[in-house]
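dumping this here before i forget
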Amino acid sequence: MHILPPVRPEKSIARLTAILEPLAEEVKVVPRKRITWTHKGHQQMYLFQQGELSMLRASDGLLLVTVYEPHLFGIAEMIQPTQGHILRAETESMLLRVDADEAAVRFREQGVWEDVAAVLSYHTAYLIYRDAQVVQQRTYSVIRNHLQEMILLPEEARMRTTILDYIQDRTLLSRSSILNVLSALKQGKYIAFKRGGYLLELKHLPESF
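structure:
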């Protein structure tokens, strides 16, 4: 069964952002900078405003998702601070940092816990969607899923990341297994990439290969 990606709760994100912005402190981060969940001993939330930001699994650095649109991070950590994930800037980025305790008080005052639940549910649904793409899937299926995801990225982002790096960062597949599939797809004229391995074009990929 094919699982569709979850729909971003745009209105909920916008409402929560508007509530938190007056409390927030601007933070500019350089590329590859890792962002901690605490500041001066207090749990934080982050309003991602501009740039490119990734969430990685803390245990092994596996890249779970990269975002380009304004977003809100730290709701799960506000409620259950396990710190199982890390945020990392991929380009020069701008975020707003908010004390999580202050955010919770403001959410309670404004009666927006339904919006909080919508964003938290979106994050949970995205992790389920991502697992469906990689867990117990054949090597080709995993690569196919990530190629289809990659072609939807802004061109600027695709030209900064090779196909090999993109897939290796997000899966546990070996370099050789990825390159073998990419070579076969190129020979079949299903894919086009420039020197260095940057994705240019993707045609309709077969279900199996």
